[in-house]
Amino acid sequence: MLIDTHCHLDAMEFDADRDAVVQRARASGVGRILVPAVETAGFDRTAAVVQRYSCCRPAYGIHPLYVDRAQPGDLELLRHRLELGGVVAVGEIGLDYFVDGADRERQGVYFSGQLELAREFGLPVVLHIRRAVDDILKYLRRIRVRGGIAHAFNGSAQQAQQFIELGFCLGFGGTMSFEGSRRIRRLATELPEAALVLETDAPDMAPEWARGQRNEPRNVPRFASELARLRSCETPEVVRFTGANALRVIPGLA
Asked: Which of 9, 39, 106, 137 could form a disulfide with 66 if both were Cys (CB 3.0 to 4.6 A apart)?
């Protein structure tokens, strides 16, 4: 099954034509779309989107770049959402050391709190790891969860192996379509097939053929073809193993 393991379908960029976006995705063969929330203020919006489209599944979390807007009771709001059921993962959560001025201590507080909730509810997590891979791994060793997906992976092969050992798959999407993305393309080529899943991060991270445009989940089949080309295998084989991997680490996608 073709699965987009990271698509912000609830983003306002899709408000004008969300139905058409989903129709194009389904027509292209995408069978499941994971929609991760980024802040508690958007939880109801995320829920409404996934309820409208049978191919979508929700994850709820507080993104590291939104913790400056988080309130003291937001972790309890997340707990309440998880208690309602129907949630397949906690996410998008993590750390982001790329943005200047980001409050790393505050990010850490919310990240650890959300990992604790994921462990309590037995849920996998969807990780944002930009420029923070080593610290993310430290948290994961201290607060063990049932694995999940490291979104937009761009670390080293050694770091990739550490995520794999902790029960994670690594997300690959539009970035691997650029000739200049040498590290990502090398990782996509050399990592074990059991470690790879496909994602868009739509509306962001558009591929080379749609540079400067809005990304969409309908691009997932072309990502599968690009991954097949890099790995010198057939596209149906990539569809098979990436879909199986996604279902293994986030069973609620089934």
From this structure: 39
Residues 73/74/78/84 CA torsion (nearest 10 deg): 50
pLDDT of residue 16: 98
Q: Tokens 């958007």 label which residue?
A: 42
β-pairing, 89-94 vs 125-128, is parallel
CATH superfamily of 2-253: Metal-dependent hydrolases (3.20.20.140)
Mean pLDDT of 221-236: 98
Cα(177)–Cα(179) distance, rounded to whole angstroms?
Answer: 6
Non-local (6+) Cβ contacts of 50 within 8 A are 35, 56, 57, 58
3-state secondary structure of 92: strand
Paired tokens of 183:
């590290």
Helix, strand, coil shares of the chain, percent, nearest 5, are: 50, 15, 35
Tens digits of per-residue pLDDT, 119-164? 999 999 999 999 999 999 999 999 999 999 999 999 999 999 999 9
The average confidence (pLDDT) of the chain is 98
- Rounded distance between C-alpha atoms, residue 148 and residue 119, angstroms: 12
End-to-end CA distance of the chain: 10
